[in-house]
Amino acid sequence: MKINRKHIATAVIPIILAFIMAGCWDMVEIETNAFILGIGLDLSESEHGNDERIMVTYQIALPAEMMGSSGQGEGGGGGASTLNISIEAKNLMMAEQTLMATLNQVPNYTHLQVVLFGKELAEKGIANYIDFFFRDSRIRQRTKVAASKGKASEVFKVQPKTVKSTSQYISDLLDENEKRSLMVLMPMDFGIMQRHLIRGLDICLPSIMVKKDTLTVEGAGVFSGNKLVAWLTGSDVMSLKWLHGQPAKGIVNISSGKIKTGDFVFKITDNKVSVKPVLDGNRFIMKVKMDVEGDIGEIQNEKFNTYDIALIHQMEDLVKQKIMQSCSQLFNKLVNELKTDCIELGRRVENYYPDFWEKNKNRWKEYFVNSALEMEVEVKLRRVGVIK
Amino acid sequence: MRERSDWLSNIQITFMVSSAIIGVTVLTLPRTAAELAKAGGFIATFITGVLMALVLVIVALLAKRFPNNTVMEYSGEIIGFIPSKILGFVFFLYFINVVSTILRLFCDAVKELLLKNTPLEILIITFLLAAVYLCLNGISSLAKICELFEPLVIGTMFLVILLSLEDFNFEELLPAFKQDISQWLFAVPHLTISYLGFEVLLFAAPYAQDTSKVVKYGLLGILPSIFIYPLFVGITVGTAGVEAVARSLYPTIQLARYIKFPGGFAERFDIFFMVFWMLGAYTTVSTFVYLSSVSITKLLGLRNYKPFILLIVPVIYVLALLPQNIKEINIFSQYVSYIGLALLAVVIVLYILAVIQKRGKILENENK
C-alpha cells in the first residue's frame, strides 16, 4: 500500500506523545501533598556554636480528619485535624528539606494562611528569615503575618472548636473581625511587609496571645527595623489604625464624670480617615482628617432618656475628645519613645514629596522624630439603638 | 487575488495584530517601567503606546499601498533588488530571534512559577510544536485562532485589573505627576518591545479581504494594549509600591496572586490568569513562527512556506537555549527590541520613499 500522509501522521504522533508523557516531572498526587496551613518561627533553644538557628513549626492539614463529622467544618471533629511538626534548622529552605525527610508528603504552600513570628525571634531580629517568603514563587503575598507574645509553636497547639485548624482560625479572625473591632489590628501580609521594609520603614503586626487554650488576637507588636520593640494594647490599636489611615469600626468607651448618663459606649458605624503629610519648614505635620458616625451602644445607667439633642451633642464632644486624645498619645509614644514609623508616614512623604524623599530617605528617622500631629475630627451620633 | 479561499476578515486583522502585540512581556512590563520611570511608569508606557500607534499607521499605510504583495516583494520596487534582499534577511533574523526570545522568556517563567521540575527543553519543544502545528495549517487558521483567543486574553486582563482595584492606592502614583518629562521619554525605548508585533501587517495585508480598511483595523488592534499595559503598570505600582515592583521579577503574577476574591470563593485567581496568559503567548509565538517561515520563503523566491516551518524549528530551539541565565535573557530581549525598532525605522523610510516615488496603488478617493 502506498504510504500516504495519514500513515506518516499515525506513526509520528505516538512518538511525540511518548515524549510528552514520558515523565510528568511536576505531578504530585493529591494525597501526597502536605498542605501547610501555617508556619511559626521561633528562636531555637539549643546552642550550636555561633550559628543562630530557628525552630520552624509547620501546621499541616490532615484532610481525612477534617472531613470527619459534618462536611462543613462545624463543630470539633474527633482528634486533631492538623499535624504540627517543629523542625530546627538554619534557614527556611533547610527546614523544608528536613520536613521532607520527616514526612511522607510533599510540602505544598498553596494554602498557607498565616505566618507567625515568636516573641524571642522577633526581639532578636527577623531580617535573616523573611527573604524566603518574598523570593519563593510558591508563597502568596497575601499570606497574613502576625507576632506571637510567646512561642509561635505554642499558638499552633491550640485546637479551636469552630474551625479545623489554628491557622484558619487566626486568618478568619483577622479577616472578619478586624472590621468590627477596634482591638484587632488590620491584617498584615507579605506584600505590605515587603513594601515597608524596602523603603526602610517599620511594621506593626497583630499580636497573638495564648492563655490556657484560648487564642486572643488583640493588640499589636511594633517593630523598629526588623526587631520587635514594643507591644501595644488593644486600646492602642484603635489609634494605630486611624493613624495608619485605615478606617476602623468598633466601640469607643467613654468614662466621664461630666455627663449625666454616666459611662457610655459609642459604637462606630461609619468611618472615613484621610492622612496627608505637610512639609512645614524642616519638619512634617501629619494632618489627619476623620469623619466618625455612630450610635449609642450601651449606657451604664438603668434608665436614662437619651433622646435629647443637647445630650447627643455632649456625647459627640466627649467621643471627639477621647479620639483626639488617644491618637495624640499614641503618636507621641511612637515619635518620642519608640521612634518607629509604623504608621506609613514615610510612605506618604514619599508619595507627596518625592524629591524630598529622594534626598533624605536614608535619614528619615531624624525627620520622623520631629513630626507633629494635627487632627480634625468630626463625630456625629446618628442613632441611639432601639429604645430611648 | 480576492478569489482565494483564505482571505482574512477585518476583525481577524485586528486580532492578529493585537495577539502579536499582547504576549509574554505583559508579565515583566511593570518591572521595566518601574525601574526606569519609577512612579511615572504608567505614563511612559502610555506614551510608548501612542508612539507605536503612530508607527503602526505608517506601516499600515505602506501595506495598503501594495495590497497584493508582502513587504519582501514590493521593497524591491522601492529601494532596489539587493537592499531589499538584505532587508528581507534582516526581517528573517529578527523574526527568528523574537520567537526564540519570547519562547525562552515564557518557558522560563512557566518553569519558575508552575513547573519547577520539568526540563526547560521539554517546555520549549512542546510549546514550539504546538505553534508549528497551527502554522502548518495556513494563515487563515492562525487568524481564526487569534480571533478566538485574543478576546479571552484581553478580557482576563481587564478582569485582573478590575479585581485589583480594591487594594489600589492612588497615592503611590502621585510622584508621577511631579516628574520630569525627560524621565518618561528616557524609558520609552526600553518599553517598545512590549508593543512590537504589528509588523505582521506587512505580511498579512495581501490576504486581507478589504485592504482599504487595514489602517483602521490595524489601529484597533493596538488599541487594547495601549490601555491594558499602562493600566497594569499603574495598578501594580499602586498596589505594591514602586520599589517592590522594581524588585519583583514577575510583578503581574504577584498582582494576580494578591487578588482577594470576595467570600474566599476562589483563592488562587492567578491560575486562571496564567491559563489565559498562556493563550496570549501561544498566539504571539505562532504568529512569529509564521512570519519567520514566510520571510525566509519569500527571500529565497519560493512559494510554499510550509517545509520551512519545520526547517526552522531546530534553529529556534537552539537559539532559545542560548541564554545561560535570566539576566542573559534580559540582554537578548533588549537587543531584539533594538533590531525591531531599527526595522520599523526602515519601514517608515520605505513608506516615505514609496510616496516620493509614487509607487504602488494610489487610491484617489475612498468612497465609503
Q: Could you explain the architecture of this structure?
A:
The complex is a heterodimer of chains A (388) and B (368). Chain A is of the alpha/beta class. Chain A contains 13 helices and 14 strands. Chain A has helices at 5-21, 63-67, 92-102, 119-124, 131-135, 152-157, 166-176, 190-198, 234-243, 309-338, 345-352, 354-360, 364-368; strands at residues 33-43, 54-61, 82-89, 106-108, 114-117, 144-148, 188-189, 204-211, 214-224, 227-232, 251-254, 264-280, 283-299, 372-383. In chain A, the strands form 2 sheets. In chain A, strands 1, 2, 3, 4, 5, 6, 7, 8, 9 and 10 form a 10-stranded mixed beta sheet that branches. A 4-stranded mixed beta sheet of chain A has the order 11-12-13-14, sandwiched between helices. The longest helix of chain A has 30 residues, at 309-338. The termini of chain A are far apart. With 368 residues, chain B is mainly α. Chain B has a single domain (10-367), classed as Up-down Bundle (Amino acid/polyamine transporter I). In chain B, 72% of the residues lie in helices and 0% in strands. Chain B has helices at 10-21, 29-37, 41-65, 71-79, 81-113, 120-135, 139-164, 181-191, 200-204, 214-240, 242-247, 251-258, 269-299, 306-320, 326-357. Chain B is globular. The A-B interface holds A 16, 19-20, 25-26, 110-111, 137, 140-142, 191, 194-195, 198-199, 347-348, 350-352, 354-355 and B 38-39, 112-119, 122, 125-126, 129, 171-172, 174-175, 178-179, 239-241, 243-244, 247, 254, 257-258, 260, 267-268.
